[in-house]
Structures are given as C-alpha cells and as structure tokens.
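dude i think i finally got it to work??
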Amino acid sequence: DEEAGRTIPVCDENGAVWWQADMDIDCDGVRTAQCNEDTDCCFYPDTAFHTSTDEPLNAAELPFVVVPSPCDIWDYRQFGVHGGGAVAIIYDDRVKYAVVGDTGPTGIIGEASYAAAADLGIDPDPSTGGTDSGVTYIFFKNSTVAPIEDHNEAISTGQALARQFVDNN
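look at this
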C-alpha cells in the first residue's frame, strides 16, 4: 500500500481472498450531498462497475469495496474476484457485507464506499475519514450479487458464503 508505506499481503484461501489494511473512503459514482466535487477532492462521477440499469454506483448509499486495478503486483481477476462479487468487511466487533464496486490505483489497497464506512462505524468523510488500520476484507471467489445495487442480496449472499468459508477452512 503505497499510501500507507507498507506491503499488504493478499491471502488466498479455499473460497476467498482476504487482506487486512486501512480503509480509505471512496466517494466516486453518483453525485450526492455526501459525495461530490466539494466534499471529495478526488471525486469521479463514475465507478468501474455499474447498476443493472448501467448507472454508476452510489457510494453514499451502497456499501462497496474498491480493489486495486489489475497490474504486475496483483490482479484480482486471477483470483475469482470480479465486479458485483460479495465481500465481508470486518472492523472491531462488526461484520458488514458489501460488493466489489470499483477499481482504484494499482498501489493502494484498503478502500471502501462512504456507505460501507458508515455501516462499520468508521468516519465516512472522504476528506478526513477512514481509519489507518484494523480492517479485514474477505472477497468470496466467483460470487455474484445480482443486481449489484441490491444490498439485501449482498447481505444474504455474503452470509451464506461466510458460513461456507468457515466450514471449509
């Protein structure tokens, strides 16, 4: 993680890929009161993956995780991780479920949407929020949440895959 100045190991297990890192706040996608050019200096009005109606995701409403764009260091696609895949995010005593919703810089790992941070009790402000450590991200291989914008589907899919992951490891 170039931003944190350290190397974050990506662990490959039966049914999932996971890592522990910080959490930076991603506000890209649909322009909202929480996520726009005024609240986030790096705001971009699109996401790598889109809703079922081909619209960018809404970072203020949808819990999602950002994966580093494919590069020589690590390519998420080679490990069964893809847009709309189910993710469990663990912070302190909370487990929340989300989807893979965006890609980011190749040298930065540990980023999630405004909504994901808020769900975990992490300050979601894109300028001052996030946390420096203590977040575990578990990406369930070859999973699909459909439609990607259905958070209840992300929860039920994530819970079922988390049980399967624990039983198989």
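Strands lie at 11-13, 16-26, 64-68, 86-91, 94-104, 111-113, 131-140.
im so relieved honestly
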